[in-house]
Amino acid sequence: MNILYTGCTAKQTDDNAHKRARVKRIDDSSIICNSLRKQGFNVERRKVRHGDDLSKYDLSIVGIGAFGSNNYSGDILNALYAINKSKRVLILHEDWKIHHTMNSFSKMLDDEILQKTLSKRWSSGQSFYGGVDDEKFDKEVIREEIKNINNGKYDSLIPAFDWGDKTIVRNIVKSNKIYNIDHTPYVLENWQIPEVAPIVKKHKKHMLASLVDHRSWVRKQKLNWQVDYFGAKSIKESQPLTSELAVFNKCNEYISILCPEYPHSGSGWFRSRYIYSAISKSILFCSHNDSKALGLEHKNVEQMDFIEIGKYANTQSEAIMSYKWSKKDFDNKITSIVEECQNT
């Protein structure tokens, strides 16, 4: 099977993009492409330009993101062209901000807003959106695919654990069918995360490792323990962590790992901190929806004594790890997904 793997970002369209990132770690798209190639699929991962002939591909996996995003908008018009010209399409929703993505697509249904968006330029005069200056650029193709995505025409692929209610995501992205894949086995392998954590004395504090500033969510939790931040440049006291192994080791040093709530909480969206907390036997301070989806009683770690903390950490760890995929599980699942999509 010939598969085109493309999208809006360098990490979706370039095998080597993750090697140039600030945090050196393999990305979701590389994990998917490596698995498919290992199993004999011919996967071409590249940017698409308007006018490209895509007839040789049996399936196109196309990542999309929000209009107006510096991270996801660069090649969104090229991605929409790829969707329009492909025989079969599977939409990749990689960014957790799926509400933002879909809201931006809804706004583009207004022709005036769409035209203004397509005319956006950097201060240098260069077009903000790649493809808009191509000789064969066709605004009607873009308009058609914006409507199709808003109407949920295409099935979607998302990074998510097997636990959780996927209708929460389906109601946001509007796809009739959602395929989820759990990156855990390849995350652990590629990021060199041990499956048994070193035994250390844990700080009676909360830790939050994220490139995003989640302080507003933290304030709402009305916590009494100190919160240590890692990764977010916008937080003055935040400490840098240069690798995912460093993130894991830091998680292992704390009793509590904060897990800010996303709009799709309870869906099982993939977040490495679930696995890190489970391996390190630290308590994941997550939303009520996530606890319920895991079949756990929601508890506040600050209200537990030492024995209760140990018991709950073990219970939470067992619940999370009971859903953990092996590499064979991942390979079999992604294979079944692309084969089903080809035959649809």
Secondary-structure class: alpha/beta
Give the overall average pLDDT.
93
Low-confidence spans: none
In the residues, how many domains can be counted? 2
Strand order of the largest sheet: 2-1-3-4-5-6
The main sheet comes to: 6 strands, parallel
Q: In total, how many beta strands?
A: 10
Helical content band? 25-40%
Query: Separation of termini?
Result: 14 Å
Please provide the ordered H/E string of secondary-structure elements: EHHEEHEHHHEHEHEHEHEHEHHH
Structure characterization notes:
Helix 11 (272-280) packs across helix 13. The longest helix has 17 residues, at 327-343. The relative contact order is 0.12. The chain has helices at residues 10-13, 28-38, 76-85, 98-107, 111-118, 139-150, 167-173, 184-190, 215-221, 244-251, 272-280, 288-293, 306-321, 327-343; strands at residues 2-6, 42-45, 59-63, 89-92, 155-159, 178-181, 203-209, 227-230, 254-258, 283-285. Helix 11 (272-280) links the parallel strand 9 and strand 10. Helix content is 38%, strand content 13%. It is globular. The chain starts with a strand and ends with a helix. It has a 6-stranded parallel beta sheet, sandwiched between helices. Strands 8-7-9-10 form a 4-stranded parallel beta sheet. It folds into 2 domains: 2-182 and 326-343; 187-321, Glycogen Phosphorylase B (Rossmann fold). It has 14 helices and 10 strands. By secondary structure, the protein is of the alpha/beta class.
Short recap of the structure:
The protein has helices at 10-13, 28-38, 76-85, 98-107, 111-118, 139-150, 167-173, 184-190, 215-221, 244-251, 272-280, 288-293, 306-321, 327-343; strands spanning 2-6, 42-45, 59-63, 89-92, 155-159, 178-181, 203-209, 227-230, 254-258, 283-285. The protein is an alpha/beta fold and 344 residues long.
